[in-house]
Amino acid sequence: MNTAAVFSHPIVQPPFPYEETALAPVISANTLAYHYGKHHKAYVDAVNKLIAGTAFAEMPLEQIVRSSAGQAAHAAIFNSAAQAWNHAFYWQSLRRNGGGEPPAALTELMDDSFGGIEQCKKELSSAAVGQFGSGWAWLVHDQGRLKVVKTSDAHTPIEHGLKPLLTIDVWEHAYYLDYYNRRIDHVNAVLDKLINWEFALQNLRAV
Ligand code: FE2
Description:
By secondary structure, the chain is mostly helical. The protein has two domains: 7-12 and 28-92, Orthogonal Bundle (Helix Hairpins); 104-205, minor pseudopilin epsh fold. The protein has helices at 3-6, 29-51, 61-68, 75-92, 104-114, 117-130, 176-179, 183-193, 197-205, and strands at residues 135-142, 145-152, 163-169. Strands 2-1-3 form a three-stranded antiparallel beta sheet. α2 packs antiparallel against α4, α3 crosses α4 (75-92) and α6 (117-130) runs antiparallel to α8 (183-193). It is globular, with a radius of gyration of 17 Å. Bound molecules: fe (ii) ion. Residues 35, 39, 87, 169, 171, 173-174 line the site of fe (ii) ion. The site of fe (ii) ion has 7 residues, from α2.
């Protein structure tokens, strides 16, 4: 085994896209420090350890997720890789002074797909609150329309060929230090004050 080759493409945790205080008070600096510095980092470290010496070692992260999905023999790699991918996507789904009115191009598609932004937010909130246990709520693009889907544990829409536009992490580590068991309060505050509609539009334009 060529060790240099194995480690020539490590999966890198993307730099944190804002200051740790940027999302306070909706998400505290303490929560972000642990979430990015411990949880997200642990998934990245784990996937690098697990793929070393395997065919996955030369793949970009998204390809590792797709290639290991649904394969029992690669469940550990899938879980770490998908969580690493989901978290990198999640940080971009939030921003300081987010929420509010989405850009016009997104609003039009929301009107067609849900009947308006409020209905879209309601569906996202219901998916996030209704996800039993750990998981994620997603706004996705599917065949010309927007849809809301929820996934459990590490699962992610990219397994199924859906194009994610944004996500909300509803693992307890995302909110428990700030909201304890009140997931609904966290989710609704995120939707009202942090959600990054511009990132969703950027992903939509990349479809
Ligand atoms: Fe998380």
